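Hi R.,

Here's the chain you asked about this morning:
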Amino acid sequence: MKDNIVPVTDWTFPNLEPERHVLEQIGASLAAHQCKTEHEVIDAIRGAKVVLAQFAPITKSALQVLAPNATVIRYGVGVDNIDLVSARELGVQVANVPDYCLEEVADHTVAMMLSLLRKLVPLEKELRAGGWNGIKVSRPILPMNRTTIGFIGLGRIGQAVLERLRPFGCRFVASDPMLTPERALQLGVEICTLEALLTQADAISLHSPLTPSTHHLMNAERLATMKPNAVIVNSARGGLIDTNALCNALQAGKLGGAALDVFETEPLEFDSPLRHLEQVLLTPHMSWYSEDAMERLQTMAAEEAARALKGLELRCLVSNA
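And the predicted structure, written out as tokens:
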């Protein structure tokens, strides 16, 4: 029966064995696809009751071909590739897996930030080129106990980043409408406006969701208010930063550097100027990855699919009718 077939629109894992193992236990099976376009998605999910999706676009047209009261489960945290407004209108449930890689993303974010603050990229390049003039290529470097870290968004991942940085003795400031004064006091964080944060922080870590109101949150105007040697780290969503504005600021020497694990267009365009900027540290959307995290993601997504097939309450419902 088609109700017991779960299409996977796209996937980047070595295999889909964890999903098959979970679904076989309830008499269901997978239909694996590698969809890139809306039309491919529509063909793959037509009539499906439950869908697993990674990066493929789940548009209104795609949602319309699902079975009544269907469920779409996103591999991962962000759901910006799914039309949530249309999902609500059409009665399609949307779920995600928000807690499979918290530690990994925090570790990766801190590693990128420390690499920028300690100027590891220019220092390594200087050495490989035969040089030995470390101060010239890296100046200035502040001691960590004189460094202000700014968090734009301070949810679970942001707080995990903060805890990893706490032993360095940094000062922490945060802009997050959900952060209460009581919680800020517990965390040792100063609450401030976004504008104040941008003028104070030596390093900024982005942890906001991508919504219409946060798209290009870091635009040319806001980037221009950052300290000249400040750095910015984004392991959240690529659309939070206006890429062209960031490139212009870096090329003009108005920022100290950027570390990006996520991009407005993924994969990153081959001709993107980001690839050629010396002040930029790039990783290919891999902050989530460890072997354990990958297995957790696949298993937890499949378990959510099994709950949906059985008509049970979903663990991580994002959008409901």
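The mean pLDDT is 96.

Let me know if you need anything else.
M.
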